[in-house]
Amino acid sequence: MGFLTLIGLSVALAMDAFAVALGVGVVLPRMTARQVLRLSFHFGLFQALMPVIGWLAGLTVQEWISAYAPWVAFGLLGFIGGKMIWEAFQEEKALREHRDPTRGLSLFLLSVATSIDALAVGLTLAMLEISVWFPALIIGLVAAAFTTAGMLLGRRIGTAWGPKVEIFGGLVLLAIGLKILLEELL
After folding, report:
1. What are the entry keywords (predicted)?
2. CB-based contacts of 158, cutoff 8 Å, min separation 6
């Protein structure tokens, strides 16, 4: 996987985290540096761990589906991208139900929800026989940076961009899946 593809993938995966962080920045009555650090750390950590978990799971099924790997990668990334686009309009409602989403169960659930897509990416990397360690690190760092930026921007601009950013991330994942499929077919 080329570095630009990895960056594109990382940015696309970070769009969930960015959109949620944007919403969190809006709903917090008073945002502290501790809240920003806590959310950024957890989103980055979960985004880095999920591809590793998916990759390890993918290694166990790789030999059975290696011939179909590009199609599976296309299907998984297409599904994830479509899911991101579909969910872009539902996250704002969920954020308003919590007082401080940077603590406790809310923090855990948001961390899992924003990183579940990375699990499928890890599975895809295993099927394509790509080592997961460097991509997981980059994915985690990009997610943490985008979370920080999202919270800070959310504090300033409100929720106007939230769904649009996540839609863009979904489209990027769809494009990466299509690229993998076309490389195999051509």
Report:
1. Cell membrane, Ion transport, Manganese, Membrane, Transmembrane, Transmembrane helix, Transport
2. 26
d(CA 4, CA 143) in angstroms, rounded, equals 16
**Full-model pTM:** 0.72
Q: Is 36 exposed, middle or buried (0-12, 13-18, 19+ CB in 10 A)?
A: buried
Range 89-123 burial, b when 16+ CB lie within 10 A, else e: eebbebbeebeebbeeebbeebbebbbebbbbbbb
Considering its fold, how many domains does the chain have in total? 1
With respect to residue 109, please indicate whether it lies within any of the assigned structural domains.
yes
Q: Report helix angle 104-127 to 133-157, nearest 10.
A: 140
Enter the tokens of residue 10. 């990382």
pLDDT digits (tens, 9 = 90+) for 111-141: 887 888 888 889 888 888 889 999 999 999 9
Q: With respect to residue 186, please indicate whether it lies within any of the assigned structural domains.
A: no
| Amino acid at position 21, single letter | A
Contacts of 116 (CB under 8 A, 6+ apart): 50
Is position 117 within any domain?
yes
Please say whether the dihedral angle defined by the alpha carbons of residues 37, 40, 43 and 45, taken in this order, is positive or negative: negative
The string of pLDDT tens digits covering residues 20-63 is 788 778 777 788 999 999 999 999 999 999 999 989 988 887 66
Q: Is residue 185 part of a domain?
A: no
Residue ranges making up the domain that contains 21:
3-180
